[in-house]
Task: inverse folding
């Protein structure tokens, strides 16, 4: 059993003993701490909740709702929903915050409480720490019987979200409809199976083939939208009857595309392509995290903008986007953040913008992919024993490569012309994650192995 308490919320496996998994006791405790924090900081006794289609979702949702009502908070329940839909709804409902019940791309046994502020954005580091302290101290109290909170179920917010996408200035339904797209969707049997086909039909897509679009929470494959998990949709596209495939994760904040021949467009390139389109219409800056592809920087500079890297984590990317007034940003995991819509990763907005771009381009999706710089990212990790000082290793690596451009806002990122290596320590275990990128797959692997060897040498010397 696992229970991970972080600044952005709490996630864990269902079952086991309290404190060791995401049990009902833990759900109530952390929901209570969050509810108390919302009341103290906003004075607004209204919270929006929504869930993905996980098997445990209904159970967790009932616990969350009842707990918040017990604190005198009015619950607005969106039912089966998506992460960006809940984010979208919080300010529209004038709520003090929101809770998304989803473990995102984690396997079926996981669930989580993702916590939002009154803007519908993820809470900050300091806010998350305050809530964790409240939970630990059980610093919360409940309402007397005549002051219990109300409960309202609103089930049309996905439709409102879709209309919002259609109303975006840079989403062009007529251009999309004129292309008569035939599209396959893999929504991993979660709420993307409700939202994405409905959105595509609203955008005028001619044919929508639904794969794994029944929102029953029985994931047919590992729910992370990586090429190795998407063999079924790739095989369907290989037959040549469709223009592209669309894949989302269980809570619909990550977006990946499959080319018409079954090959991956590349999750890293979702943001690159959307940014290329946005920047062609709106001059400005971009942001992604330190572990995302350099291709976004190349595209940004081509359009005369400035690219900035942020620390890993959506809240960090959003803060940096606000600081540099970015017109588009996100993460290389297929996360599109479009400020003209809202400050959250949103696959629905991403689909509307990408299909407008592809329709305007006028050729196949594989031809569009070929217009972008081709980089390869190698992802590795080194497991260390608990007594090894990971921070000291990162300091020594930084010293060793001090003649190269280095960014240390989140671990250590070393740049070598158009190549880079990013080292980050895990927050939960003695691991250093090593991401490297190059125009050559072999070079990316070589860079990673070189840094891994450096780390092993540093560790060996420290043990002498």
Result:
């Amino acid at each position: 059993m696992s229970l991970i308490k972080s600044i952005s919320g709490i996630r864990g496996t269902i079952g086991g003993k309290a404190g060791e998994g995401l049990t009902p006791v833990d759900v109530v405790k952390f929901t209570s701490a969050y509810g108390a924090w919302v009341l103290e900081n906003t004075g607004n006794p209204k919270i929006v909740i929504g869930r993905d289609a996980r098997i445990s979702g209904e159970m967790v949702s009932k616990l969350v709702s009842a707990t918040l009502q017990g604190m005198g908070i009015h619950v607005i329940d969106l039912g089966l929903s998506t992460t960006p839909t809940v984010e979208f709804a919080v300010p529209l409902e004038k709520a003090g915050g929101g809770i998304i019940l989803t473990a995102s791309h984690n396997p079926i046994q996981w669930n989580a409480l993702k916590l939002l502020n009154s803007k519908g954005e993820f809470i900050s580091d300091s806010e998350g720490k305050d809530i964790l302290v409240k939970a630990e101290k059980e610093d919360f109290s409940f309402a007397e019987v005549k002051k219990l909170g109300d409960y309202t179920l609103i089930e049309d917010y996905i439709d409102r979200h879709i209309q919002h996408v259609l109303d975006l200035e840079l989403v062009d339904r007529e251009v999309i409809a004129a292309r008569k797209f035939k599209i396959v969707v893999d929504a991993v049997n979660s709420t993307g199976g409700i939202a994405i086909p409905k959105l595509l039909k609203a955008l005028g897509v001619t044919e929508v083939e639904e794969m794994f679009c029944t929102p029953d929470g029985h994931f047919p494959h590992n729910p992370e939208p990586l090429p190795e998990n998407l063999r079924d949709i790739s095989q369907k596209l290989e037959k040549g009857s469709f223009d592209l495939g669309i894949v989302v994760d269980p809570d619909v904040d990550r977006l990946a595309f499959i080319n018409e021949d079954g090959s991956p467009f590349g999750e890293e390139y979702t943001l690159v392509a959307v940014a290329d389109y946005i920047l062609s219409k709106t001059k400005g800056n971009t942001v992604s995290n330190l572990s995302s592809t350099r291709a976004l920087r190349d595209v940004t500079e081509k359009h005369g903008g400035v690219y900035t890297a942020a620390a890993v984590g959506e809240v960090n990317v959003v803060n940096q986007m606000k600081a540099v007034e970015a017109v588009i940003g996100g993460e290389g995991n297929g996360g599109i953040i479009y400020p003209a819509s809202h400050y959250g990763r949103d696959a629905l907005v991403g689909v509307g913008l990408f299909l407008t771009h592809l329709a305007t381009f006028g050729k196949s999706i594989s031809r569009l992919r070929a217009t972008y710089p081709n980089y390869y990212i190698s992802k590795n990790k080194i497991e260390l024993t608990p007594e090894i000082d990971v921070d000291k290793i990162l300091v020594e690596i930084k010293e060793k490569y001090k003649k190269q451009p280095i960014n240390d806002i989140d671990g250590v990122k070393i740049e070598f012309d158009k190549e880079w290596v990013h080292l980050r320590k895990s927050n939960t275990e003695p691991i250093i994650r090593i991401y490297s990128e190059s125009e050559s797959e072999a070079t990316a692997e070589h860079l990673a192995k070189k840094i891994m060897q450096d780390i092993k040498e540093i560790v060996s010397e420290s043990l002498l």
Observations:
- The radius of gyration is 22 Å.
- Residues 441-463 form the longest helix (23 residues).
- The longest strand covers residues 376-383.
